[in-house]
Amino acid sequence: MLQKIHIQNYAIIEEIEIHFSSKLNIITGETGAGKSIVVGALSLILGERADTSILLKNDKKCCIEGWFDVADNTAVQPFFQTQEFDYSNELVLRRKIATNGKSRAFINDTPATLQQLKQLASLLVDLHQQFDTLELGDTDFQRTVLDALANQTETIVAYQFIFKQWLQAKQNLAALQNQKASFTKEADYNQFLFDELSELNLQENELENLDLELKTLSNSEGIKGALNKVYHELKESEQPIVTALKQLSNQLHAFASYHAELPTIIARLQSNQIELQDIADEVERLNDHIIFDEKRIAIIDEKMAVGYKLLKKHGVQTTNELITIQHVLEQKLQAILNIDDAIAAKEKETAHLYNEALQKATSISVARQQQIKPFEEKVNGLLFQVGMPNARLKVELKETDLQLFGKDAIEFLFDANKSNKFEPIKKVASGGELSRLMLCIKSLVAERIDLPTMIFDEIDSGISGEAAKQVGSIMKGLAINRQIICITHQPQIAGKADAHFFVYKAMKGEAIQTNIKLLTQEERITAIAKMLSGEQPSAAAIESAKEMMN
Question: I need a labelling partner for 174 at 20 to 30 A (CA). Which of 49, 194, 202, 293 fits?
Answer without folding.
Answer: 194
